[in-house]
Amino acid sequence: MLARKSIIPEEYVLARIAAENLGKPRIRDCPRKARFIAKNGACNLAHKNIREQGRFLQDIFTTLVDLKWRHTLVIFTTSFLCSWLFFALVWWLVAFAHGDMDQRYPGDTDQACPVDGNVNQWKPCITCVRSFPSAFLFSIEVQVTIGFGGRMMTEECPFAITVLILQNIVGLIINAVMLGCIFMKTAQAHRRAETLIFSRNAVIAVRNGRLCFMFRVGDLRKSMIISASVRIQVVRKTTTPEGEVIPIHQLDVPVDNPIESNNVFLVAPLIISHIIDKRSPLYDISANDLANQDLEIIVILEGVVETTGITTQARTSYISEEILWGHRFVPIVTEEEGAYAVDYSKFGNTSKIAAPRCSARELDEKPSILIQTLQKSELSHQNSLRKRNSMRRNNSMRRSNSMRRNNSSFIVPKVQFVTPEGNQNTLET
To answer: What is the pLDDT of residues 236-274, one digit of tens each?
Structure first.
């Protein structure tokens, strides 16, 4: 069905819409800042315009380990095929030069190599090598040490013996490099880091009277990380007094750890805290300024894998949007039947608490702000308790009144009747 034509001309409607749109402010989404370290620990860094590509070939083993699996398998297969084909060509040339293609000799009893009459005065270099496919099969048998009994070496050609030794050495080198590469790829340290988890968000709250930056870290495996240590770095764009712009300026952040060795016993999830003091890059940042800060807090967990003895490293980062001010992590470790249980479904859950919205510098200069904040939180907590108690009382009174009404509606009436003996009995119905 066709729409009816409007009475107002189209030119007027378009002009009116344009005038309304000009008066409204246009809101554009600000470009999202690139992270230096992704949440999964991968470095968000692209290497471009590398002119000296030959440096990667000087460390060929590390280059092979760093390649993707599909590239490693292609190189693995190609290296063996090329070595087999190369030595197959060498064996075919040896047999051709010695005349093994035309002669018949003792032992050639197969249909592929029949016996000739004059066999007692001539011996081949390689028995039963009549064509390139047979030379290729012999090359595979030599390199992978599989012998089927039909093709074998003789003492007629010293050069063939040299080729045999050379092929064995080349085959051992290829096996050692490729198998070692595959073993290192399967036992890489970052595989163990997949079971080391960090909380999705970090929090800033008051702990022991000081403003602290906190996050949670845990290990999903029962095998522990030995000598685990946690480091925190702040990456931000800074400008020196001389005007030099440093796009990635790394600052070390001290970790609040009562142990002098700075090692953590990661048997259960832990909350790692950093006291925001004068040494901290977060000292002058308040809750309102946090959203406008161009900073990234990198967390690095290092340790030795208990089962393999390999050093592993797990990384993550927190930007300003992922830092919750005035929150605290909920407890997830409970004692059940004489054992400690960890509920990982609440690993990243937080609860909102009272915390001053000012910076740590202002909190140090005016300690009364913390006292006032705690008093307000205590009053609000008491008011909430009073409201809950009053609501419970009202609910209990309503329930009692409703029960009384229900009981009054179920009152049983009394009925009198006369028996044949003339006595009156009362029956409740």
So the answer is: 877 788 888 887 888 888 887 665 566 888 888 889 888
- Tokens for 18? 């344009």
What does the CA dihedral 388, 389, 391, 392 come to, rounded to 10 degrees?
120
SS3 241: coil
Contact present, 217 and 366 (Cβ < 8 Å): no
| pTM value surpassing 0.70 | no
Q: Where are the alpha helices (DSSP H) in 24-120?
A: 54-58, 60-66, 69-98
Cβ atoms 214, 271 nearer than 8 A: yes
> Nearest Cα to 293, choosing from 374, 359, 215, 350?
359
Residue 309's contacts (CB-CB under 8 Å, 6 or more residues apart) are: none
List, in order of start, the domains of the chain with CATH numbers.
Answer: 67-186 (1.10.287.70), 192-352 (2.60.40.1400), 367-429 (no CATH)
Strand ranges inside 90-193, DSSP E = none
Cβ–Cβ < 8 Å for 189, 311: yes
pLDDT attached to residue 213: 92
